[in-house]
Structure formats: C-alpha cells, structure tokens
Amino acid sequence: MVGLPYDFLVNPLGAVRSTFEKAISSGSNPASFDGKDWGALQPFQHFLFDQNGLSKVPILNASSVKWLQPNTLVRFRGMIQDMLGNEFYVGAYKDGSTWKTTKFMNSSQCPTGFSPDMRIWERRVLYCVPVPGQNSWTDSSRLGEINNSAEGTSENRQKRCRMDENAVDHMDILAPSDEFLNSSSGKKQKDEQLSPYSQNISTMATSSPSTACNTARGFLPCIVKIYDAAESELKLNDVFEFIGVITLGTEQEVDKDDYDEFSNGLSEDLSDQFPPDMVPRLHCVIHRKLGVHDFLHTCHVLEPIPHRIKEIRTALLNHLTIALGNDGVAAQFLLLHLLSKVHARVDSMAVGKLSLNLTGFNRESLSIFGNQLRLTVKNLLPFTEYIPLTVEYLNTASLAPKKDYEINRLVPGVLQLAEGSHLMIDETQLEVGTLSSLGVENARLLKNLMELQKVEYDFKYYKMDMTTDVQLLILSEGKSNILPADLVVPFQPSAVGSTAITDMDALEAWRWYLSNVRLLPHSIESEMQQVVENDLVAAKQADRNLGSQDLSRLLTIGRLICASYGETSLSLEHWQMVKELERLRRERLR
Amino acid sequence: MASDSSPVNFNTGPSSPDDSFSSPIGNTVSSSGDGYRRRSRRRSSTPSEMATPPRQRPRLVSSETTPTAKEPRSRRRGGGRGASGSDVPPVAATPSSTDDIPPSTEPGDGDDMDEDHPTFVWGTNISVDDVKGAIIRFLRHFRDRQASQSEGDFHTEGKYAEVIKRVLENEGDSLDVDAQDLFNYDADLYTKMVRYPLEVLAIFDIVLMEMVPQINPLFEKHIQTRIFNLRTSTSMRNLNPSDIERMVSLKGMIIRCSSIIPEIREAIFRCLVCGYYTDPVSIERGQITEPTICLKEECQARNSMTLVHNRCRFADKQIVRLQETPDEIPEGGTPHTVSLLMHDKLVDTGKPGDRVEVTGIYRAMSVRVGPTQRTVKSLFKTYIDCLHIKKTDKSRMVADLTEAENRLSSNVDDLSFDEEKVEELKELSKKPDIYDRLTRSLAPNIWELDDVKKGLLCQLFGGNALKLASGASFRGDINILLVGDPGTSKSQLLQYIHKLSPRGIYTSGRGSSAVGLTAYVSKDPETGETVLESGALVLSDRGICCIDEFDKMSENARSMLHEVMEQQTVSIAKAGIIASLNARTSVLACANPSGSRYNPRLSVIDNIHLPPTLLSRFDLIYLILDKADEQTDRRLAKHIVALHFDNPEGIEQDFLDLHTLTSYVSYARKNIHPKLSDEAAEELTRGYVELRRRGNFPGSSKKVITATPRQIESLIRLSEALARIRFSEWVEKGDVLESFRLLEVAMQQSATDHSTGTIDMDLITTGVSSSERLRRESLLSATRNIIMEKMQLGGPSMRLSELLDELKKKNPENEVHLNNLRNTVSTLASEGFVEIRGDNIKRI
User: Fold this and answer.
1) Which of A533, A560, A568 to mutate to probe the B interface, most B CBs <10 Å?
2) CA B779 – CA B787 distance, rounded (Å)
3) Do both A100 and A189 map to the same domain?
4) How far apart are CA B703 and CA B604, in angstroms?
5) Which of A17, B127, B459, B633 could crosslink B478 through cysteines, CB 3.0-4.6 Å?
6) Which CATH architecture is the domain B2-230 placed in?
7) pLDDT score for B34
8) What per-residue confidence (pLDDT) applies to B516?
9) Chain A within 8 Å of B26 (Cβ-Cβ)?
C-alpha cells in the first residue's frame, strides 16, 4: 500500500475520486459512466482480495459503530430484510470546469439548479439487518463465549430488539392502524405478544428501553446503498457482506417541517424512519454473498479428506447421541436433518428438505433434553431460532412478514429467515385452545413452510410466496399433525449425559463439517439407479400407502447419508443403510 | 406566477430550479422566447398565464385554463383555476409580469401558427409550429379505420372532431386521446410527444383552445388533453434516469392514497390594521409570499397582513402510491412503488387495491435541504405526474368477456395479444399432438392421471355459453368432480388449476358454509347499513371455483350448489335484500369415497355417496383409483430418482411453460367459438341414444349413473372445448368421440358391471373381458330358469347352496362359484324377482 496517495481504509473516497479524475482525464465523458463503473472497483478489489486487506476492514456492528469514523471503509454482514427502492442522485456534476462525482458518498454540496453538466444516476437502497437468529459464536469478537448460559434470554432479547426496532422506526408515524405503528400502544401490545415466550425472561429485558436493547444485544440495522449491481444479484433474505463507505449521522439534519410536496401526503422519507444516528448508511463498493460457511472463523481450513470427514462424523454423531440421551437412531436422523438443504425445486416441490419431528417428549424429558438439544444445535449452526408453540403464541405472533403501506416498509416476521437457518419448534407446550383467525393463518404458514419451504409474505392486497430454505425440527409428544414433518422419529432416551463441550477444535471441526459437507455434489451410477428404482417399486408394491413423498424422502436420506461420509455418489452400502434406518424408524413407530 | 415568466426563465426552462418541481433534466422550452411569448400573450385570455410558453404541459391535467401556461407553478395554479372555471379574477393585473403588453382579451384568436420565425422546442430541432400543425391535422382529420372506409371523405368528421363536440355538449373538461390513434396517424408526432411531453401537450392544449371557440364560442372551460394507451408500457422496475421527463405508461396496483390535499393557488391577505384586502397573490416557486407591508398607501403597517383562508383559491391534489403487480416482481425481490401525483378530476379515481394503468410524465424533484435554504440535496424524489388513469383487472388467465355488457367498454379489453404471440399460438395449435402436449404441460409434476388432466383441460377451455332469444341460457362451464382414494394427488391438481384459472377461488369443503360459498348479508356495525358480501362462488364468476373435501361439506352448504351449477346464479333473499348474483363459474370439486377408500364391493354410486341431483350437474365425474400397477410404480420411481439426481431426461420434456399455456387458453377462450358440424351432431345423437340404452339395463336403474338430458349438454360442451383446444371453429366428429371416451373413462365405465353397478377391480387392472360379461349373462338366465322351475310364488325358500348344486347339475361344464351366484341372485332380487334373506332365497 505504500506509495498510494490514499489509504483505502481511512480514505476510501480518495480512491474513488482519484480513479474518477483519472478516468475523466483520459478523455471519458461522464455520460458514459451512467450505470457503470469507471474503474473505481478494481483498486478496491485488488486491495481487499489480492492484498488480503479484507481482514483489516473493521466490521460494522453495534459496538463498533461507536468508534467508527465516518467516510471510512467498513464491512457489514447482514441479511437483506427489505428493499427500499431506487434512488436518483446527482452522480457527477461540473464544478467550474472540472467534473466531480458524488458516487459512494452523501453529498449536499451539489449545485443548485440544473444544468446539462450534471448526470443523474441511480442506486438501490436496501435495508439490512443482522441475520436473524445469528449465534454469538459467529461473531469473531466474542470467540470465547460458547456455552451461553442465558440462552432463552438472549434469544428473546433479540426478538424483542427486532420488534422494538420497529417501534422505534415508526415512532413518528401517525396512523395507528397497525399494531406496530403507534409506539405507545404498539409497545404494550408487543409486550403481550411476547409474553408467551418471555415469561422466563428477566424483567430487565422487558423493561429495558429499546435503544439500550439495541446496543446491548448488538442489533444494528444498516441502510446499504448499492451502486450498479444487477437486480437479480441481490435478493430478499440473502445474506451478504457489504464493503463500503460508512456515513454516520452525517446526513444533514433534516428539518421536520421541511416543506415538501409529499410530506403531507405520504411520509416516507428515509431519514424520518431511520434516523441516521440510529441506522448508519453504507455506500457499498463491493458486496459478496455469504454462505453459512462464511460465518465460521476457522482459520484452519480443513481439507475434505474422506477419512478425516469420517472421523469428524463419528465424533459428531457421538456428541449428538449423548445430547439425545443415548438414542443412536434419533442421533442419526438428527445428523441427516442438520445436513439437509433444499437443492432443487421442481414445481412446488422442494427436493432435499428433511424436516424432523422427534416425538415422545413430555414435560420432564423436554426440560432435560429439549434444552440440551437447543444448546447443541445452537453451538453447531450459525443461525438458529426457537419457537415455543402455544395457542397464545399462534394467536398473537406475527410470523409472516407483512408490508405496511403506511410507512412503505416490510415489517419483519419471525419466519423471515436467511437461507440455511435452523428453526426448532417446541410443540409440547401446545394445549387445547381456540385459535383466532390469526392463529389459523399462522398455523397454515408453518405448515406451508414445512411442506413447501415457502413463506407467504403479506402484501395486503395479495400474498406473495417467498421460497426459503429452513431446517425444521419439531419436538412434540405425539406425531405433530399441525406441522407434518418429513420424518417422524419417536425419541427414546436411555441415559442423561453431559454435552458440555470441552474441545474447541472438535467443535470448530463439526461446524465446518456441517456447513461444508452439505454443499457436496451428488450423483448416482446407472446400476445403482436401477437398484434404487427396483427397491422403490418393491416398497410401493408392498405398501400401497406409500406416496411419492415417502419415496422421495428415502432418496433424500440416501443423499444425505452419502454426503455425511463425504462422498458424492450413492453407493449400495449407503443405500442399505437408508433402508436399515427406515426399518428401525418404522419399528419404533409401531 | 407571472413573475416567473420572465424571459430568462423560459429559455432556460428546465433550469428553473426554483420550484420544487422543476425537473433536473433540461428540456424544454422554445428557444426563441419571444416569438412564442408574443404569440402566447396574444392568445391567452387570462393574462396571467400566458406568459409562459408552452413548455409546461402543465398539467394537462389540471390546467385547463390557458393552455399556454407554463411552469409548474402555473400548473398548480392552473389546476385551481380549473376548478373555478375561467373566472379567473384579474389576476393579471397584479404583479404579474405580464410585462408591458396588455393581454389580448380574445382567447384563441390564434391562428398565428404561421407566425414569424419558427420556434423550437428547447434543445431540439423540433419546431413548435410543425408540431402544432400536426396536432391540428390529427384532431381534425383522424378517422378510425373502420369508421371511415373512405379516407378523404370530407363529409364525415374526424373522430376527434366529433369527440370534441361531444365533450362540449357534456360540458366536459378533458379530451381523451388514444395514443394508438396518434401513432397510426402520425408516428413522428407520437414520438415527439413521448419524448417531450411537456411541450407537446402544451401545444395540444393550445390547439384545443383555438378549436373550441370555433365550435362553440360560448364555451368557457378549458379542455385538457389526456393521453392514454401508449404503445409500450414500462415496468416500474425499469424506470431509470433516462425516462425522466418522458411520457411513460405503467401498470400497477394502487396501495395508498393520501387524503385530498387542498393546494393553494391564490391567496388573499388582509391587513389587520386597516382591513385592506390585497389582490390575490399567486403561488411562486411553490410558495406564497406574504406581503410585509400593507399595500394601502395610507396604512403601510408593517407585518400586519394575515391570510384570509376562505377567500383563497385551492385546487385538489392527491398523492397516490402505485405498486408493481405481483407478476412483475422477479424472484427474491420486493415490489417497487412509485408515487403518482393527481390533480383535480383525477383525484380519487382509484382506490387502494385497484389495478390500474397509468399514463403520465415521469418527473424528478430535487429535495431541498431546508425550507428556507436554496441548497438542494443531491437526491431526487421521483414521481409520475398523472395524465390518465385506467382501471384494469387482469389477473392470471384473462377472464373472458363473453357478455355484451363487457364489450361495450372496449377499453377494458385488456387482453391484447400482439400479433407475434398470436402467430406463435396458432402455430402451436396446428401441431398434431397439441392435445397431448397440452395435457402433458398441465401439472407436469403430477404423475399419470392423463385422462383426468384431459378433462381438466376441457374445463379450462370451456364450452360455449348460449343465450337463446327466449331467455333460456345454457352454461358453457364444465363442472368436474374427482372422487378418489386418499393420496392420489387430487388436492394438488386442484391447487394447480386454482393457480392457473382466471379468478380461481380455492376453498375446502369442511371450512365452507353455505353463505361462505354464495353470498351473505351483513350489517355494518356503525352505520347499520346492510351490505352484501360475496362468497367464493360469486367471487369466482367466470373462473373456476375449486372445492376440496367436497364430501365433508355440510349437506346444507352443498345444496346451495344446485342453483349455481345449473343456473349459474346465486339468489339471495334475506335481510330485505333480494338479489340474484351471477356466478358463472365452473366447479371443480374433489371428494373421497364414502368410506374414505373405494370399496369395490359397493356400487359406484354408493361409493360416491352424493345425491344424484348434484351428481348429474357434474359433466365429468372421475374415479381416481389407486391401482397396484407395477408399470406405474416404476415410472413413479424413475421420476423420483430423476428428480433427486437432476437427470435431465425424464424431467425435461417438451412442456409448454405455464405462461404459454395460460395465454393459449386465454386466447382460445376469447377468440374461438366453435360450432357443431352436422357430422358431429349426428354422432352425438347416436352416442347419446346408446348411452341411454345402457342406463336402462334391466334392474340397474339405481346402481348406475343414468344418462340424462344433462349429459348431452355435457357432451356438447366437452366437444366444444376439445375443438377449442385445436383452435378449430368447427366441432368435428373426432371431438365428439373423444368426449364420449372421456365420459367413459372418467367413470371407469369400461370396468363397471352395469348390472350391479360395481367396479370389477380385476377388470381395471387386467383389462376388460367381454366374455366375462357374456358368462354372467348366461349365468343369470340359467339361474332365473332354475328358480322359475323349482320355486313357487310365495313358496318355501331355498338355500343358495342348493341352488348352486342345481346349477352345477344343469351345466356340468361350467364352473360356478358361490360368489358369482350371490351376485347373480342379488341382481334378480333387484329386479324384484326374488327376495333374499341371508342365504335363503324366496320367490316373490
């Protein structure tokens, strides 16, 4: 970096400017930069990826936001929660005789008046939030915390935060037509709404003001402005890392009684909804999509050697078996479940999903194994959510995201989850009761999610299906009929073991294993295909009740078993395992 | 406003930064300000406006007044005026910069088109005069193609000349101009209008100003031009900076309307000290400047002026948010929205939830940092200045407009296939395997069930509805009932059809009550007014109403369907409301057999267990039986394996994609109205007679679904649908045969024993054996003979085993099983020939 006239980290705009000037001086017309890059990205790319500058870029989060300097380069990892449309801005203008650009910055210094010497460009505005259910271990700054003792609290706190966030966001909106709108009444409702699962939370969390909550728990949304990216590149609920220039509270103070043609009509000024001091703006220079594996901080990238993978598998399986009270069969299925992923959609069918329903829980075993299981999963996967299903919860929770046209925002729902999230639903607490229409709707949403891996977003005048990829684990007493899972496995614990994790390396390896193995490709030999087909036909002949779902499930299990051994092609041995597992499972069901 | 009209201003037109509306992009305005100015002055009656040249299209929307008007602000003002007619007070007098030249009072004396040197639209080589001439020509001479066979016949008036007259008669204030007409007449003008809408529309207004007095000198209002039906409509998503200041047409859904905003146009102030009223002060740069000093010479009090609200003039304004329709949203995106600005008459023309097509000018407005600061942010707010708004209702397959009433509003005719597409579809229809291909494309993920899919296909295409002069009407909608074992993907088929059909409604029988299906009357808790709310069937008028779990529906609710399915109306008489609502809907229902699974020992009717009155209203009743067939299973297994391993073959076949399928169906429904050919009619008659005869099989009346006259209607509908599939205007013999086949297959009739009404499962799997039927018939007659011989009327009973022995004695070569015999005897019993009690038979 020596010798460069600017420092990418501290003065990224310097880099932007100098490339712009270079481009202009080489005779380009600013008009030709409409919707295009003039060469500003290349030096950044070079710096970040070739010179390994990425790790030096500070991460923007609730704690770092306090000390980050405006107009420096930062990165933000988050999920696209809402898209706020496009924004037109003066991208380049002529100041005297020289062209200047305002790309990647907030600028109010643009000349008044309009002249042909001004180019109007367009950028996309995205509202991003930290990935829902993100576990603290993914945060590299908190590497040490593994066994988070206050599980319930943090979960709920986070949820609270999301909701409070809304309350804050909408504070100045008048029409109280929606429960989220009016801050005072909204808050009250919210507390009620949370009560089913906040009972066990310390009152501190409930009473803490939302701002405290925000910073305490590290919930920091961010408005990201994207330049020149193809629309299809960024999708709702995708998890991205945005590297760009931060502007904090620097946006000129907006006068509330600004005379504005639209102000008395539709208030949707961004700065009204998201005060710049609460929600930083990031002018994104480079973005990249993140997968689950990007959230691990193993420096030691493991080689996918088959024999090493088998070792990890055995150890992990062992760990899961202990967590499940020595129930080996359940552990096998749990492992497969944790590896599942939607890898194709054929019409309405999501191929590859494997939701698991562990039955046979009662209050007692739930208190022991339920928590243990949650903890285990939390430690293994980066994004986990937990829903204690009760009638009250169903009747009050807002599961599906909903568009609020008053503020022109998509109000998040519990089911707005990033790809690869894990959702555990505890049905044991469900008691007899009456569902309201909201409850019925929520139950339907959950069922759709189970069956199709789709969530219906409510756009008021119509609904829109959004595909998701969420692993669903249901704990219930008997087979859950509200939430029909692909696999129903009666849970039969025989011992209580401790799942405390001692070996950090092993844990890291397991995380790596879970996030990487599921990406393996999969194929089948033609002889094997024949075998499988024959077996399916035989199974179908033997039991007329088998539907295509059941057959499909067998193949999914086959694929996952195979992947769990780090292999990419279904072998006869693994197919036998599939059948054996299925046999064991059926035996239990009987 | 006047003030703004300083020449400078207009030359630089675009740059007028002042007001918040100014567009960033330079455009506009005639170069030689003076020529124009002069002219305009002359012409405009109300001086105030005149000042500015045409660049403003100001609102065509609103402003009627002098068209010439200009700047946005004038637009605003204009709007106001619109409301109050041309009674504009002598504003002119005021400060307005009317410059030195006194306004000419005559409106529109203008024929000064040929004025001095040509004026140009600023920044272009478009001559204002040329444009004006073109517009005049268009308005005077454009004729509809069909209306005017003889072009150049000067005796008939042009289309728009007539329209203008009509507008004048109705005291209207706007002239709708179909951009398509404009394009046909003068493509160049059209292009200019789209590119420079402000200027061109202003000229339009000027022209109208001039034409109106020629027709009716007493007409005082101003007529605005509203353009609609642009040739291309933009997707909201694709609006980009280059569209600013252009005319665009967008489709979307209104999601929010602001309340109506009174926008001040002119203010009057009063001095608190002396009570002096100022002359109206008009809006300038989006603001009204309050005089600091009383203008009355004797008073001159400082800061004493106060606004007199009820003497100010306001105009209506409304901001509406338009959102993309769901079908335009790419996967993984959220809908985009755009603001619309509506003035005057357009206010409240749409309400949230309406799907509309909007024509307007895309504009950007800079955002000022503070109310008092001149600096602006580098951001722009964009909005569409609305010129014309048209409601559309287009969802999924386009519901066909068969009724004359719908034809009237030709604008609503939103289903416009472009010619290319039509060609493509026609090409497709010529393929010999189009029927099979469509069948394959329907719910491709559902395995097998080809015949069911064929039936559903017919339902989608539908037959011809007929309305006789006598008032009798015959429905064209085909109703289908699917009865079948659990797990045979009935529900999935339903869901699929529901998604595909125009206005499909999906309900589940268990959750539906009679009123939920038809309509109910509710009372508004606040006003006490009674309101009629439509249920599923009414809502799916002209669509398909899918009812799942039909068997689990309450008897009461089901009975509501009788009327709907034949008369296609829903009648209500409650709470003082007596109404008959149209419910021209096809019903697609599915049900499980009475015992959840099909019971082969019961007759089909007993299995379905629905009242015959209802059954006869279904055109096709499918029995979907889960047969243990290795072939099928193997195909299923292959399919699933392929699914999991991305085996391209097996998955990818030549399906039509959903979009093509829907447009194919929509086109056919709309444009193809097949008629019966003689040959087909003959075949129908023959087949029907045959059908009747079969139903009259001795003793079977209760066990088999008998053909009724309804069935012949069904057959006609099916045949028509089949012809439509081929895009054929004639129903041919092949169609009729296929419709008979469908009817047969549906009921598994090939495997039905007509004497007992049961389905022989062996027959289904192994194929039909006609010898079997013969054998049974001979057994029947043999048994009958024995009974006649051995038993007396009312005599002692006889055991079945004895009977069996007798039979064996008589025909030693024939193997007779007890079961066969039992069947035979029960047939006899149904004829009333014998009576069975346990194993005992008694002749009666």
Assistant:
1) A533
2) 12
3) no
4) 7
5) B459
6) 2-Layer Sandwich (3.30)
7) 39
8) 65
9) yes
Does the pLDDT of residue B154 top 70, yes or no?
no
Position A531 in a domain: yes
Q: What pLDDT is recorded for position A1?
A: 41
| Gap between the Cα atoms of B288 and B264, Å rounded | 9
A584 and A563 share one domain:
yes
When mean pLDDT is compared over A315-324, B46-55, B583-592, the highest value belongs to: A315-324
List A residues 406-425 in contact with B (Cβ-Cβ < 8 A).
Answer: 406, 408, 410
Q: Which of B321, B443, B636 sits opposite A266 (nearest CB)?
A: B321
**Mean pLDDT of chain A, nearest integer:** 74
Taking 50 as the threshold, does the pLDDT of residue A176 lie above it? Answer: no
| pLDDT tens figures, A500-513 | 666 777 888 888 88
**Residue after which a domain boundary falls, among A193, A217, A241:** A217
Chain-chain contact of B326 with A541 (C-beta, under 8 angstroms): no
3-class secondary structure per residue, A92-140:
EEEECCEEEECCCCCCCCCCCCCCCCEEEEEEEEEEEECCCCECHHHCH
Q: What is the pLDDT of residue B270?
A: 79
How far apart are the C-alpha atoms of B122 and B124, rounded to whole Å? 6
Q: Where are chain B's structural domains? A: 2-230, 238-411, 421-750, 769-843
Residue A244: CATH number of its domain: 2.40.50.140
List chain B residues with CB under 8 Å of A346: 445, 643, 651
Hey, how many other C-beta atoms are within 10 angstroms of the C-beta on A362?
9
Whether residue B818 is predicted with pLDDT greater than 50 in this model: the reply is: yes
Confidence of residue B4 (pLDDT cuts 50, 70, 90): very low
Whether the per-residue pLDDT at B528 is higher than 70: the answer is no
The percent helix, strand, coil of chain A (3-state, each to 5) is 40, 20, 40
Can you say whether the dihedral through the CA atoms of A512, A514, A515, A521 is positive or negative?
positive
Residues 6+ apart with CB under 8 A from A95: A111
User: With contacts defined as CB-CB under 8 Å, which chain B residues touch A461?
Assistant: 253, 255, 352-353
Q: Is residue B506 pLDDT above 50, yes or no?
A: yes
The reply to whether residue A114 touches residue B14, judged by beta carbons under 8 angstroms, is yes
Fold of the B238-411 domain: OB fold (Dihydrolipoamide Acetyltransferase, E2P) (2.40.50)
Total count of residues recorded for chain A: 590
pLDDT at B706: 56
CATH 1.10.10.10 fits B769-843, yes or no: yes
Which residue of B lies nearest to A463 if distances are taken between CA atoms?
B326
Residues A243, A192, single domain; the answer is: no
Q: Domain check: are A259 and A271 in the same one?
A: yes
Range of the domain at A570: 520-590
Q: Residue A237 and residue B332: Cβ atoms within 8 Å?
A: yes
| A101 reaches B (C-beta below 8 A) | no
Say whether A410 and B334 touch across the interface (CB within 8 A): yes
Which of residues A267, A290, A313 is at a domain's end?
Answer: A290
Chain segment B679-728, per-residue pLDDT in tens:
888 888 888 787 776 655 544 444 455 566 777 778 888 888 888 888 88
The DSSP bridge partners found for residue A222 are A128
**Rounded mean pLDDT of chain B?**
67
What pTM was estimated for this model as a whole? Answer: 0.65
Nearest to B278 by CA among B265, B296, B292: B296
Q: CA-to-CA distance for B748 and B768, rounded, in angstroms?
A: 11
Tens of pLDDT along A355-379?
888 888 887 788 888 888 888 888 8
A536 CB near a chain B CB, below 8 Å? Answer: yes
